[in-house]
Structure formats: structure tokens, C-alpha cells
Amino acid sequence: MVRAMVQQAVQGSSAAYAKEMERLSAKESLLLAFKDAGGFEALVTGKTTDMQCIDVNESIVSLERLNPTPRPTTSPYLDGRWNFEWFGSGSPGLFAARFVFERFPPALASLSKLGVVIKDGYVNAEANVKFFNSIESKVILSTKLSVEGPLRMKEEYIEGILKSPKINEETIPAQLRGTFGQAASTLQQLPDPIRDAMETGFKVPLGGTFYRLFMISYLDDEILITRDTTGVPEVLTRLDPAPSPVIEPVTDYES
């Protein structure tokens, strides 16, 4: 009996080790698929081929079936700074990114960053856009998350913020520096309420008018994968150190 118990424990340990190695291999394959597809810029500019897209999606599915977090919506791993690596064809993130690239030549505008910060049930999605390689602007979308199940969440949009552009004077062409100086002087002469509003950015209240449902199909300390109601995947990678894992409490989900 003792021999059987020891053998069963060894076999269980070996199976767990093999599954973990399979998961780590699947993660590496997904990251390599992103790289082979040309990365973020190739994705948002529509330069990824059908073969590259199917390779990435196959790697996503392979990793999802090895999800190590059974209740990701209440996991401490969800909080943190995340960077978008992949959008599906119907993703709102991809639509917003391509809106910039399709209307402005690369020499005029570029999307340098698209990421999110998740903290205590709230999300700030940030998009950094640079115009003429000199003017940087940031668009922030604030949302609230509600847990509706071990995998499912509801995201309500709270407000949008258009930050005032920041200008790098060193990169401004010499022939335009005089005009820039005059504009800066004019801004300083504006009334304080207007100047303060321009410095802090313009806010657009959304008041929970818009929302979306999505599910978390994979979550660990480095990668987050979500799918919307149409099944379109989004893949994000963590930018900050992951929190220490804790025992997740049993949660009563909203219906």
C-alpha cells in the first residue's frame, strides 16, 4: 500500500511537471509568433500576412487550453500595467490604432504605445500618438470592471480624456520655431481656467452609457488573454513585476 501511494505521488508530480513544461513552451511559441508576424507596428498597419495571423491564433489557442488560473477575474495577477501585443480583426483596440495609421502617413503620425493599467476594478487604457515626430499627445479611456463569473467580466466606460499635446522643441524645424514661440506666448496669456483645462486635458464624460462583456481565457504572471462576445482575442504582456500569488476567496458573482 505504501509503495502504491509513493508511486502515485511520483506519477502525479511528473504529470504536473510535464504540463508546466508544456505551458512554458506554449508561451514561448506565442511570443515567437508575435515576433515573426512583425510585432505591434506590423499588426496595426495591416502588414501581417494571413499565414502569420493563423500562426499567432493557433499559438493563442494552444496556450489558452493550459490556463493555470481557474478564476482569473478575481486573481491578484489581473492588476498591473499591461501592454497590447495582439488584436483580433474586430478588436476596438485595433480599430483605434488603424484609424491613426490609415489617415496619417507614417512620417506625420505614429502610435508609439497602447497599454492599460488595471487597479482595484478600474482600468485606464492609454494610447500615445506622436505627430510630425515633435508633438506627443495621449488619449486615456477610463473604465470600471465588474466580475460576473470566474471567467466573465463587464466593462463600463466612464470617461475619455484627451491630454494636451507636449512639444519637443529640439525636434521642431528651425523655420517653425518662431511660430511655435508666438503660439506658446499666446497660450500663457489665456485666462487661468482655460489654460488649466488645456494643461490637464479635455474630458468627455461617458457615464456608463457604453459597456462591453468579455472573458479572460488565460492569465498568469506575464500574459493576459481576453475574448469579446464575438470570440476575438486580445493578448497583453505585463510591464511591471507580478504580485505574489494568494489564495483566492470564494466570490458571489453578479448575475
TrEMBL record:
A Gene Ontology cellular component where this protein is annotated is: plastid
Compartments annotated for it: namely: Plastid
Instruction: Please verify whether the record's keywords include DNA damage.
Output: no
The Plastid lipid-associated protein/fibrillin conserved domain is annotated at 48-232
Keywords per UniProt: Plastid, Transit peptide
Judging by the UniProt lineage, the source's domain of life is: Eukaryota
Q: Does the keyword Manganese apply?
A: no
InterPro entries, A to Z: PAP, PAP/fibrillin_dom
A Pfam family (short name) is PAP_fibrillin
Q: What is this protein called?
A: Plastid-lipid-associated protein 13
Species of provenance? Forsythia ovata
